[in-house]
Design a protein that fits this description.
single chain; 449 residues; alpha/beta; Metallo-beta-lactamase, Chain A; Rossmann fold; 7-stranded mixed sheet; 24% helix; globular
Amino acid sequence: MAGPSVQFLGGVREIGGNKIVLTDGPDRILFDFGPSFDPAYENYFRDFLQPRSTSPIKDLLEFGLIPRIEGLYAAEALAHSDLPYRAPEFAGVFVTHAHADHAGYLSYIDPEIPVYVGEGTKALLDAIAGSTSQKYGDHDWRTFRPRAPVRLGRLEVRPYPVDHSIPFAFGYLVHTSEGAFAYTGDFRQHGPRAPDSHAFFEAVRDAHPVALAMEGTRAGPDARENLSEAGVRSRVDAILGQTDDIAMGCTYPRDIDRLTTLYRAAVDSGRTFVVSYRTAHLLASMASHFPPGGIPVPGTSPNLSVYGRRKKVYYAWEKPFLDDAVSAEELARHGARYLLALDFYQFPELIDLRPPKGSPFVHSMSEPFSEDDLNDEVMHRWLDHFGLRFHQAHASGHASQTELFDLVRQTDPKILYPIHTQHPDAFLRLGPRVRPPELGAVYPLAAGP
């Protein structure tokens, strides 16, 4: 019977889109399943131009945007494609975290295949699905406890919490018939859960891994500033301390750590933090998964309000926040009392808010990946039109190249597979253990470099 092997069906020389197949004899599992952030996807699909709901796999296969693999997809998703339906050939799918590039294609997976997630991750997926068009499908959802083993035939999977820019992220340590295989998922070491990342890599080191699949988002050229979450807080404190006008900030809508940072900065400066309906729904949905006072909760936390964005129709999930919502008129009159979390797609609200020229706008998101970033150009046109002062204050969700290299030396894997990076060759300086994977190639775990 064949020994263990690993195959990379995504995340190869690209950021996002991780799809890792681990096989040991008759037992096969999949780690993560989502679209990549690679420009290849947006070469064909963007905004409202998306795969047809009646034939999604067919459309994605046309451009090589999803792997051609049997025994994984739901029969409905395969409709009209040339890939035949086969009964499930995977014992389970393990999701590292709730970001779209790791979970966004789950709806295409056969509902008979169990999907393993942490309890917090499942709650996040439910909150996202409940307030957006993103759906994850009907599955045999199985939640695990951190560090508790999940046995699937020859494979024993242990999930370890890690620090990332979305809570409830995990790395995996898998014991196979030929030794340990580790997969980091996405992680960092400069956020509020840094000790979790340290503990995971200590466990990987102690397991003497045959192979390590490591994300390398920030490997290679990286001109972005390397702030910690505490550094973001210090910068925001300074910005708020220098203005008597309304302050605005933009961050990733599911970065609960950053939302908490901005909330606490607002409270300590005597301001009320104002969030969107969608952010309010997310925080309310996730409150029970944090200790009391761990995150701001609408209706419970002081100095927290919801922005009363005017709409023709309100969704059911928005209605609990309507009665006490803060109007644009109130924000315009008494702006110095508020820090408003203003999403990029809500910029038309600036027309009603009319912030005084020179009001600060805190961009608490990654700098653009290239000078051709269209959203970045549009954002600055809006800010320039209203005369707002731009401030960059962001802590990455990923470890720096120096940290990545140090962790490789610390864990000392027999083989290193750099994934989730556009620059896997940057790892080659770590010696012959490094094997930048090829898309679709099968690598025996017992083989040497």
